Backbone:
């Protein structure tokens, strides 16, 4: 049996499991996992990077005795078929494209089985070096937020468009050591903040609520962070905003306080959701309470009403309750937390 993993960014497969194993992300590559061996296929652009790879780490992560590197001289798919020809059963991850699936099926004598990502359950527990990278990504985004707050203090936020602030955020992420956004930053002013996944546009920021949801990538690992705050002069809607803000902050703290290893992830969602229901805004909390963060911005564990996950030490996930009043405004507060033996810990230095 052979499990085949492919990354090919030019053809729509971005597979972070390569980064998980190798410590870098090739744009093209294959991994073949057999009973006792893992074969990593790279072309000439990346093959020499094997000298920098921690082989013992790969053995630990895969449980395999032998790690082999193969240089792909032609088409990746031909090399994969050649290196896995002796395996009667082949499994591929469910992110494979139809093109690759068809080529594998055509070149194999046996049926191809589709599976969920091979390392999904292993990656759910973050090793110390992974946690260090996520913490650095958090530090970067904290600095970006403080830079945005400096604009608020000087009055420079007012008059800017949402898109201009998003561009400012991207530039600051790069300036402070990040390699990219972990997702397209959400900058939502006024009634736009009532749309949980609003796309920053030409709306001009004035007096009122501003929601910013952003994240940085550091050495392949993501951060995720949201704050909502008032810009400029306070008008008649400020009291309602403050009431909703306090309800969201309380829901966040309820979820944070209950979080600990051994707890069903659904109970974290329930704690935040019940707090918002008790405040009278239950119908306006329209998404789940959180999700895991790592090489992907969204991954297990899932902090949802129907999650099957149990919190374990080493898990890293968000807590992000929100209330969204259509046509008025929305409020969301989000931090990444790290599960340890005594509960969870937040490393963001941004207060709320």
Residues:
């Amino acid at each position: 049996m052979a499990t085949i993993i492919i990354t090919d960014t030019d053809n729509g497969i971005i597979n972070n499991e390569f980064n998980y194993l190798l410590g870098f992300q090739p744009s093209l590559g294959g991994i073949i996992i057999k009973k006792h061996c893992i074969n990593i296929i790279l072309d000439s652009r990346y093959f020499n990077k094997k000298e920098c790879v921690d082989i013992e780490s790969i053995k630990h992560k895969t449980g395999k005795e032998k790690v082999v590197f193969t240089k792909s001289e032609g088409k990746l798919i031909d090399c994969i078929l050649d290196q896995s020809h002796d395996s009667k059963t082949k499994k591929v991850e469910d992110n494979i494209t139809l093109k690759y699936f068809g080529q594998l099926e055509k070149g194999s004598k046996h049926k191809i089985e589709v599976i969920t990502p091979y390392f999904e359950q292993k990656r759910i527990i973050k090793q110390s070096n992974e946690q260090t990278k996520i913490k650095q990504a958090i530090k970067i985004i904290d600095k970006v937020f403080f830079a945005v707050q400096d604009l608020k203090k000087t009055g420079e936020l007012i008059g800017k468009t949402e898109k201009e602030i998003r561009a400012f955020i991207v530039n600051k992420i790069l300036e402070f050591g990040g390699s990219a956004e972990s997702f397209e930053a959400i900058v939502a002013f006024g009634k736009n903040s009532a749309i949980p996944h609003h796309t920053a546009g030409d709306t001009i920021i004035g007096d009122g609520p501003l929601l910013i949801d952003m994240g940085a990538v550091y050495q392949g690992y993501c951060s995720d962070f949201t704050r909502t705050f008032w810009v400029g002069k306070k008008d008649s809607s400020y009291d309602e905003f403050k009431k909703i803000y306090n309800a969201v902050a309380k829901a966040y703290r309820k979820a944070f306080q209950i979080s600990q290893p051994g707890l069903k992830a659904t109970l974290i969602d329930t704690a935040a959701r019940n707090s918002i229901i008790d405040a009278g805004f239950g119908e306006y909390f329209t998404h789940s309470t959180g999700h895991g963060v790592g090489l992907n911005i969204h991954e297990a564990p899932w902090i949802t009403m129907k999650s099957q996950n149990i919190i374990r030490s080493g898990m890293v996930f968000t807590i992000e309750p929100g209330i969204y009043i259509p046509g008025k405004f929305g409020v969301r507060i989000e931090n990444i937390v790290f599960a340890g033996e005594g509960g969870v810990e937040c490393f963001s230095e941004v207060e709320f």
User: Anything to note?
Assistant: The chain has two domains: 2-122, 128-346. The two ends are 52 Å apart (CA to CA).
